[in-house]
Design a protein that fits this description.
This protein is mainly beta. The chain folds into 2 domains: 128 residues, Sandwich (Immunoglobulin-like), CATH 2.60.40; 151 residues, Jelly Rolls (Sandwich). The protein is elongated and about 70 Å long. Helices cover 10% and strands 47% of the residues. The strands form 5 sheets. Strands 11, 13, 14, 16, 19 and 21 form a 6-stranded antiparallel sheet that branches. It has 3 helices and 21 strands.
């Protein structure tokens, strides 16, 4: 990761140099510096869910030209001076894959005008919120119920908990516990109408687990048998974590009339107790 960032920084520095050649009459390098702090995300909790986030990168632009993609926080040398428009877009790891960074399409970009001065540092603390016009097709915080049903073959379902030491946010989270004679967890939403093929559609899941679990989509077709399609395996995390899942590609592949989001976990026989905590699960589209 550090090698990739250094390479990006070097490429950005070259790009900025080329961009600034008309502004500097000679070869003298007199950089200004822009320090960018991590993003803060806000939301309207009743309609958009909690503003938990895992924005790890900043996609940085100056006057519309890309400077690079940087792991936040970061300090960027800029071979330019004077009033400049800086834009920072929130970067997430698509499907949790470290090498697959992307601008999250549902967060607003952050913009600020800076008066760059050579050898001085300006600090940006970017904030963002969800864009207007989004459809929150599924939103479960477990505050007033549980929209996940036990699926076929499942030994247990999700239990809503209120222990303040275990809940992520709000008053409630959910947990699936596998122990004793219980080895398989499969929970599923009611059928959902997802956007047309080709439209952006992402799921957000907050979780902590001591066992691998899988995310699937089940498609429903007129007069046919439902078809389940595997999406991703999510590895254990002792502390609460967030993952952004791009499910638009899976929708394009399946082209069903409606879909259910499924979460599955199989406890190995060598593990005496497996647990999966979930909260703040969303499916969002334009």
């Amino acid at each position: 990761m550090h090698k990739i960032l250094k390479r990006l920084l070097g490429l950005s520095f070259i790009a900025i140099s080329a961009y600034s050649c008309s502004l500097f009459g000679g070869d003298e390098l007199r950089p200004a510096y822009v320090h960018i702090e991590p993003f803060t995300i806000t939301s309207d909790v009743p309609t958009q869910g909690s503003p938990t986030e895992k924005v790890v990168d900043g996609w940085v632009y100056m006057n519309g030209q890309q400077l690079g993609v940087f792991e936040l926080p970061v300090t960027i040398p800029v071979l330019d001076s004077g009033l400049r428009d800086i834009s920072v877009f929130s970067g997430v790891k698509e499907n949790g894959i470290t090498a697959q960074g992307d601008i999250y399409p549902f967060y607003r970009g952050y913009e600020k005008e800076l008066d760059l001065v050579p050898f001085e540092t300006d600090t940006i603390t970017p904030t963002s919120s969800y864009q207007e016009g989004l459809s929150f097709l599924f939103l479960e915080r477990f505050e007033i119920g549980n929209a996940f049903n036990m699926g076929s073959g499942s030994d247990v379902g999700l239990e809503v908990i209120t222990d303040v030491d275990l809940v992520l946010e709000g008053n409630r989270s959910a947990v699936g516990l596998l122990g004793g004679d219980d080895f398989y967890l499969r929970v599923v939403t009611d059928p959902l109408n997802l956007p047309p093929v080709g439209s952006p559609c992402w799921a957000e899941i907050d979780y902590r687990s001591n066992n691998n679990f899988d995310v699937w989509l089940t498609g429903y077709y007129p007069g046919g048998i439902p078809l389940s399609s595997y999406l991703i395996t999510i590895v254990p995390r002792d502390e609460w974590n967030k993952i952004y899942l791009n499910i638009g590609a899976k929708v394009q592949e399946m082209q069903a009339d409606s879909y259910s989001l499924e979460i599955r976990s199989l406890r190995p026989v060598t593990v005496s107790s497996a647990w999966l905590y979930l909260d703040n699960i969303k499916i969002i589209a334009f």
